[in-house]
Structures are given as C-alpha cells and as structure tokens.
C-alpha cells in the first residue's frame, strides 16, 4: 500500500512538472479560478449576512497589463485575505524551498507540500520574477502585501487598498530564447487564454482593451480603450452538450480539480422532474496521490442555481465511487440551507441516487465498449471497489460485483464474473475458480494451476491482497460457487479416482499422522492426484485460506491468524514411494523429509520459512548422502 502511494506521488510530480513547463499559460486560469472562488465565498456569505451589501452583479475580476513595467495584474473584489491567511495560504511553498523544481531533484520528497498547495498559485511563480499579492479581507480595515521574488522566501508588509479583495501583480520574467514571457502582455493573447480556459467563470472577467478604428478622413487608425468582458459567464454544466468541445470539458476539469491530465471519462447529465439538476462528473485518468490515504476527501461541488454552496458535498457520492469528481447544480435547494439540514434534504438524496446510477451505467458502458480503457480505470480505482465489496459485511456486493474484472488463465484478458459464468454455462462446471498470488507470472507457475490448464478449466488470476476477501464475500455468482482452487472444497477428479485416492490415503493414515505430528502448524498430510509432475503443494481446510493468513499477518496490527494447512503430496511422484519406504525403514529420516517437503510447499505458496537454517542444513545433509 505504502509503496504504491510513493509511486503515485512521483507520477504526480512528473506530470505536474511536465505540465507546468510545457504549458505555462495555465497560470492565468489558476489565478482567475482563485479569484472566482474568493468571490464565491463572499457571495455565499452575503446570502445569510445582510450586512454584506454587494449583489451578484457587483462582483468582477479585472485584468490589467503594463507593458513598461512588464506586469499583469489580476484583481477581484472577493473575500480577500488577512495577514495570517496570506501567510498560511501562500507561504507554505515559498518557505519549503520546493519551488526550485528544475535545478534540483530534492523536490521529489516534497510532494506533500505541493499536494496541499495545489498547482494553483504556484504556477504564477513559474512565469514571474516577482509576485505581489495585495489583499484586504472583507470587513477589515487593514490591507497587506505579500511579496515573493522566487524561492528565497517571501515578505509581508502593511499596504494600502481601498476596497475588499485581492490584487495579484505578476512581474513577468525576462524573455529567454525559448520563452517569450512578453506574450502575456499582449491583450489579444490574454483574451484568447481567458476564452480558452476560463470562459465558464460565472463572474465577468474584464479587461480594458485598446480598440483601433480606421479613420477614412485622417487615413489612420483612431485608438480608444473599451472595457470588455472576456468570458461568456455561462457555467459549463448549463450549456448544451452539443455546444461543448472536449477541450472545454478538459480545461474545466483540470482547473476545478487540480489535475494535470485530462479526465478519463466525462459524464454530463441533466434531469428534470421531481427534482431537477445538472451534473458534470469526471473520472480521473490517474489515481490521485492521496486517494488511498485517510486524507482523501470525497465529494462533489454543490451549486444552487450557479452559486457554490458546498465545495465537497460528501452525501452526493457513495464511498465506492469516491474517486468521481464533479459538480452538481440544482435549483431545488434553498441557498441558505445549513449543512446539517442538507444531510437530511430529500432532494439531495434523490440526486445522490440518480448520480450513483449514472456512474454505474457509465462504468458498465466503458467496460462493455472499451475493455482496455476499463482495465486502466480498474487499475486506478478497482481497489476501492473491491474494498467496498467486502466492507460492511458485503452489504453492497450485489451492487458492485459486476464492476470487477480479473485476468483469465484462458486468454490473458480481463473478464467479468458474468463473462466467466456465461462461458461455462453449457459445461458441467458448477464453480467459478480463482487463484491468488503476487503476480500473474508467479501464479501461472503454481503447481496447482497446471491441473486446471490441462483440463482446460478457466481460472481467474487474483493479484491483489484483497481479492481473497472479495471472492469469499461474493461466494456465489449466477448459481455458481466462487472457489479458490487451493481450497479443500475443490477436487476435479472423477468419482473413481476419488475413491482410489481415498483408499490410498486410508492405507497410509498412520504414516501421515506421524508426518503431521512432526510439523507444528499443519493440520494434516495426504496424497493428492492433482499435481501432475510436482511433488507437493499446500492447501487449506475451512474458511481461513492461506492467502488470508498472508494478508492479515502482514498487517501492522497484533492480529495473527493461521489457516488450517494441508500438506498434499503427489501420489504418483517418486517421492511418494520414498516416504512409504522410509516409514517402514527409518521413521526419523521420514520426519526430516517431511520438514523439507513442507518447507518446499511453503516456498511455493510464498510463505516464509520459520527455521531456514535447520531446513538448509537438512537439505545439505540429504544431498551429501
Ligand atoms: P487552491 O486554490 O488549490 O487552494 P492555491 O495555491 O491556488 O490553491 O491557493 C491557495 C489558497 O490561497 C486558496 O485556497 C485561497 O484560500 C487563497 N487564495 C488564493 N488566491 C486568492 C484570492 N484571489 N482571494 C482570496 N484568497 C485567495
């Protein structure tokens, strides 16, 4: 688990670095997005606080450039920040020294800080030689200025500012051969970027633009300035699907949800009826770096008529779909509803149900239409679905089991339980077989798998530590029992063969008792006819499988369980003859042989050996004879 977290973090870092270095212009989108959030906050407060006199139409974001000073200024009249807020919100990264991405690789350790910070504000520093943030919190008399000139740190001092809100003044870096930072001073470039990345922002983004009109009498251009609103202010989710391009969705997603990659899937729906709502949901293409940690918070952004009322509404998403990001907008919620009331709200419950079924439908469609893409999705988030299958005593297994895919022994493709069941329908097979192990390569080499291959019986390969629990929770699917091939319940031999083996086991029962007694943690030893050329294997009796033992005992808790292990010996292998012979001639030697055979079986199963020195000495002793 931990290992994966680190790998994910690294991936995220690399993506972020690549994205920022190749795509510097996103800084504008990030700064505008922060401005819009700051206005949202004040506007939301104004709904319940009558002393806030600003009306929706009073809010704006303003962009101004100064070619001589090489500055671009983005202002908002949102909630603003106090001195402390400037410090905590903007201070972290500058202090951490992790700004210095390009030159030193130390930053790879600093993922936590980057993660907390989001790419947002940081991206401005990528294009700037200096960033100044002048901010005045709504309701406060005091304004402050935060200044940073790069990685060395930042300073905060008192400042003058007439109205509430924030001005971000970015002094652009000098041009280099590869980078023309000057471009960001060009009004047309800015207008284009705003249109491209921030069109859906619901407050006007204004810029004073120089307009030139041809003057026929003077035979030259007349210049005048005009304040223009650059965005069309309709939230993306309220637009008709046909008018939206993929890029619009992608830009919106990356902006709102701090991702560097386009989403894997977009679900844009609207519903009318008892409860009406628009929703725009996204499935990320990557596992968020903190997804499998307790820091991850699920939830959708909840809007009421275009006004953000909650940033992460948990009640809109079940735990098993916690990876979904998105927004929901409904006119059926009162704007000043309290969070406690919201939880009880009937409309919200209806919306949540509706969204849940939309997500499932979309996932099943993806599974059906594009298996490779689905497998990619499943590698990212399948663990979450698996966990939720066996969590809560399997309450949700019926809901979720069709989302599972496993690699099949048959064609090495990922298949669903349904597909497995359909394939064996016409056969005499009553079970769905699976086997667990570390990797597909290791599993395919397990002695016990061979018999299934020979008999052309399909086996699902389970490589996640949760799979055993998942399969045991499902137990039955479409009338078929779901069984681990190493379980004592699995026996592929014919009645005759079974009878014959039973007889042989009975004849050798005294020998097996002696063998089992010489091993401390094996409940029985017996002959098997399922091993073809291999001498031994280890199976289990009862509900606790060897796989479960491995997983539970590897957890950092005091919990310790033992599967009831059965050492099975290939009845047609030369070793079977040998042990029978030893039982008659040298019982002490038989005990040594038993220990070696058991150690071998444990090794094959991927279990540790408690007494490696004793075992290797024993092997050497036998080899030297
Ligand atoms: P994110 O927006 O993902 O939280 P940022 O790095 O973009 O991360 O911003 C950090 C924080 O700084 C924001 O969460 C917000 O609290 C604060 N902030 C940034 N810009 C503004 C602004 N224009 N007005 C008020 N607060 C802001």
Describe this structure in words.
- The chain has an eight-stranded mixed beta sheet with strand order 5-4-3-6-2-1-7-8.
- The two termini are 46 Å apart.
- 40% of the residues lie in helices and 22% in strands.
- It has four domains: 223 residues, Histidine kinase-like ATPase, C-terminal domain (Heat Shock Protein 90); 134 residues, Ribosomal Protein S5, domain 2; 103 residues, 3-Layer(aba) Sandwich (Rossmann fold); 130 residues, Heat shock protein 90, C-terminal domain (Four Helix Bundle (Hemerythrin (Met), subunit A), Up-down Bundle), CATH 1.20.120.
- The chain contains 21 helices and 22 strands.
- With 625 residues, the chain is of the alpha+beta class.
- Adenosine-5'-diphosphate binds next to helix 2 and helix 3.
Write the layout of secondary structure elements.
Elements: H1 2-22, H2 26-48, E1 61-66, E2 71-76, H3 83-96, H4 111-117, H5 122-127, E3 128-136, E4 143-148, E5 154-159, E6 165-172, H6 187-197, E7 205-215, E8 220-229, H7 246-256, E9 265-271, E10 277-283, E11 300-304, E12 307-313, E13 325-329, H8 339-344, H9 346-369, H10 371-390, H11 397-400, E14 406-408, E15 414-415, H12 417-424, E16 431-436, H13 440-444, H14 447-454, E17 459-462, H15 467-474, E18 476-477, E19 480-484, H16 495-507, H17 509-517, E20 522-528, E21 536-541, H18 546-554, E22 564-570, H19 574-585, H20 587-605, H21 612-624
Parallel strand pairs: 1-7, 11-13, 16-17, 16-19, 20-22
Antiparallel strand pairs: 1-2, 2-6, 3-4, 3-6, 4-5, 7-8, 9-10, 10-13, 11-12, 14-15, 14-17, 18-19, 21-22
Adenosine-5'-diphosphate is lined by residues 30, 34-35, 38, 76, 78-81, 89-90, 117-118, 120-122, 166, 258.
